[in-house]
## 1
Amino acid sequence: MSLVCASEQSHNTLWDHAKLVSGWLVICGWQAVVATCAYLCANLILTLVALNNPGYAPTQWQGTLLYWAIMVVAIIVNLYSSSILPKLEFFILALHILGFFAFLIPLMAEETKGADYVVPWCIVSTSALNGLLGLGVLLSMLYVTPNIDAVLESPSGQLGYPFMQVVLDSVGSYAGATVMICIVISMFTFACIAFLATASRIVFAFGRDKGLPFWQTMATVHPKTTLPNYAIYIISAVACLFGVINLGSSTAFNIILSITVSTLYSSYTITEMLLLWRRIRGDIRKPSEMKGSTWQANELVWGPFHIPGAWGVALNTFAVCYGTIVIVFCYFPATVSPDPATMNWACLIMAVVSLFAVAYYLIYANKVYQGPVVEISPYQIS
């Protein structure tokens, strides 16, 4: 969405650079999201094993094998079970809500038709739902954690997942704690499947727009399933290669994953800045003004879901300010005097990706890249 918005709001060479950079940042961010989700899921499984076996010490090669196994599951579902993805997503939603109560109750007991309208509402409603559920779980976890230091010093806490010890202390049973933690692991697995589907569609769309090297291949879909198989292969292959890096150095692997937030927020903020600029200039027309006239492909017209006037400007301004603050702090290291292992290298990776995108545009893409492909002709609004 950020790529489309950026394209529709710009028409000169400078903004062409911005469009291409925004697209590359989105892809890099979602590539890192896929890898991060699989990595966290693998580590959760290892930590759960350690929780049930106090003498067990997880190793990097075990984590990498689990990481690859989770990626294989995501690949198989995306390639061969695409028809059940909508049903699977509904099941994930149900499991998400049930999992919330599965966590809250034991802890407290111990102490796409109409996408232009539906999608924005889905974004708002899912953000509100997840925010409320997350707040409920957070409050309940804090309520049943009287000694935070003891939790952090527990075996699962030292492995980076202290919540497992909290669950164990709350339910008082290894079996019960395992079942509850498995709900979290299953959610991460399903999330990895969904993230791979999203990332591959973004690669396909950007390849169709001729914004990537080998775009002809990236824009290819399977003739029978109409799935972007090559895009799925590319995202999966890169994610699996990250696992090889983890075998040699977990620090190097975490450096790559550090770009997740910075790249995505950068692309979002670019979009918000362009939208705010167009909104202030009054370049976005109302649907009522389009009656009886032809809507050109790159012409901006408000959809049915938008906040007009000063409130809209205020919200866009807040989004730009918030995104800018997040981006700045994304590049701060965790310590005052970091060493190579604790340094935040997201700024370096971000710069490399941006420079590569600009170089690719200057060398080749400026001849073929014109922004997102409009698949429908300009039409008449009645």
Note: The CA atoms of residues 264 and 339 lie 26 Å apart.
## 2
Amino acid sequence: MSHNHSHEAATQTSAPGGSSQATNLRTAQGPIKEQYKSSPDSALVTLCSSGSLDSASITCAINGPNANAVKDAHKKVAGLHPMAGGPEAEVSGELCSGDMLLEALVACAGVTLKSVATALQVPIRKGEVRAEGDLDFKGVLGVDKNAPAGFTGIRLAFDVELDEGVEVEEAKIEKLGKLTERYCTVLQTIAKKPEIVVRVEAKGEAESGIERSAAWVEKL
């Protein structure tokens, strides 16, 4: 369901620097789009994130490819993935939102696993959590209208080591997996699509000095 609201017709004005930014974006993305058109497979990528577990606390430390960029940045800034014309994260400190989604999944799943393991008295000495997500940048950049813009597949894996001398009980490990899947908020959000409402509102001032605005809302 979508709704469009406008308070008088919104006057289109160019933001300072907007024209040059648009030109720079077209310049960066143009060759990439042409490459994806001529070589569709080059648009396919698997983003990865990982985290580590230890016996000291119910936490999960993110160890993904952008970990250093996050550590060095004063705040997290999302930007374009290099395959969409953006700079490398190590240089700019800007993170691809797809990577951030996988990092959120790794973090939530890792903490949930440690919490459940503690409750079940499964002593985890150390472990690794990995998430991979497949993207087709032909869809992200609109090169192929039939290609999806979102992840087409996500894989979540845990590799853990128990305390020395502790026997691995298959029934407990199965319960650990099931409860982690059941109570991981991010995983459940991805697996079971919630009701989503998207809203965009723009405000501006016409030459007459009257404020004008336009809004678009859609329930997915």
Note: Strands lie at 2-7, 44-54, 61-62, 77-79, 94-96, 124-136, 153-162, 197-205, 211-219.
